[in-house]
Fold this protein.
Amino acid sequence: MDNFELICPAGTPAALRAAVDAGADAVYLGFRDETNARNFPGLNFTRQDVADAVDYAHARRVEVYVAINTYPQAGNLGPWQKAVDDAARLKVDAVILADPGLLAYAAKRHPDLRLHLSVQASAANVEAIRLYRDAFGVRRVVLPRVLTVPEIAKLNAEIDIETEVFVFGGLCPMAEGRCSLSSYATGLSPNKQGVCSPANHVRYEQRGGALASTLGGFTINVFGEGEQAGYPTLCKGRFVAGDGAGEGPAYLFEEPTSLNAMDLLPELKAAGVRALKIEGRQRGKAYIAAVVRAYREALESFAAGRPVSHIDLQAMVEGGTQTTGAYTRGWR
Amino acid sequence: MTASLTLGPVLFNWPVDRWRDFYARIADEAPVDTVIVGEIVCFKRAPFFAEAMGDVIERLSAAGKTVWLASPILVGSERERAAMRDLVESDAGLPDGGLIEANDMGALALLAGRPHAVGPTINVYNEATLGWMAGRGAEAVSLPAELPAATVAVLAKAGRELGVETEVQVWGRAPLAISARCYHARAHGLHKDGCQFVCGNDPDGMPVTTMDGQPFLTVNGTQTMSHGCLCLAAEMNELVEMGVSRFRLSPQAMDMVRVAEAFRAVLDGQRDGAEVAAELGGLIDAPLVNGFYHDTAGALRVA
């Protein structure tokens, strides 16, 4: 039985080299513009950077995927179509797309280009996945983080394209690509601009002994003295639900936590999952190297029938806590 | 295409008697053209409404309304899939003009090749995607709430060329997100599987406020909505000029007949949109917002 493929993030050329050297089977990245869902300042790749990345990775038998996974702007399809054209010209191994119009363009213009369906398309059922396969020839689907492992197993039993699932890193509690929370608070959205809870709308305010973090003027969290302050990602904030008579502010949507599904490798393999994805194109090269190395070790242990329980990623997780997220029913 | 008013599905978990009475009054009194029914937020709620569905469709249809059925927003489990397949097959049984509105790509897949509608929780952001959907049988597309005016204009124009009607939500809290997790249950210390249907306690959703006490969002089970009530009454004329031909009112726990009458008067050129916004704003315990349309934060109101 083939081992899982390990799909790793890179926001910079240095991170790409770190991921390749640490044992990635493929590295995914984005161009430096609004065509990808991690459109952050100082991040991402020029065309020349991608050419160099492909050279570096291919020399080491590692693949390169380009995420072009925001939704092209009406009346301005050019940048997204050009991104697909350039990815094909630069001989990347796959493009990761979400928008049906762009998938149609890629399938028609570049019939040999391998298409993966982005998590941003949120294809959560057999019928949806077959549609992307039949209409555009999509070869792999990155599953949204709404399914349990048993649901993934049932799904894989009925589809004949590969599935890729997130195993580590940041965790959207909402169905990806179907969330306008950031847009509501700031005007900038994952689908349109490729950003969520953008830094230029974040403020930190000292309030007596407490530190408040705000997004678009809305308080996302208030940290008391001695509490470690985190970045105000909207869905990881503390809010008051209902009339306030309850227990007070709580992490209503999700705690500041990281997904880590390493303990689920046997279940994910039995469920027919082909590839495991690590989130974090915004992360530095040291983080990437550590996480990729740990997962490579885990996959080798798993393939050899050895336990993975000794592999510790505690230092790499947000808020110091880990979750298996939607993969287990109790999360719901 | 003449401009028409659509009443979107009730998104909240109302007791079935209230739900049935609501539609009876809509049938008798509300000047809307299309009424879309169906429980699209939570699979667990659907059985409560199933018993009344036939009566509601018949009542609305007898009153001259075109009735559409909406498919669920999030379809993951086997049981949800089975329900989606059944729903998609039910369009033949609808009265004249009845369509299924797909709210998930799975339902869209099953509707290929026959007339259908595309709901606002399917991502239609550009003319290429709109064209692809038109080619598969979409007759009307309800645009996502977060689209700005410039995008709406391009899509409305493309829609006219393609023979697809475009729709924009002009009233009601905006749907912002959907999840496998139930936040209503979570806020009550419960799990989705044992939720005790606590969402039924909040006929207009559960308010979510910041730690400063600033109203922010609304939780409706697995769905997260805006706190602000989206209102584009003052933008209606502009939308009509763009070629938008359908205007969606999303039900809130308020006098929706009065809302429908007000928007009808704007569409008919009998009332000023800004004046209608001012009147309706006094009927709901939330600020009116239109920021998405004006290409800024959705929570804002742009004069």
User: Anything to note?
Assistant: Chain A touches chain B through 72 residues (CB under 8 Å).
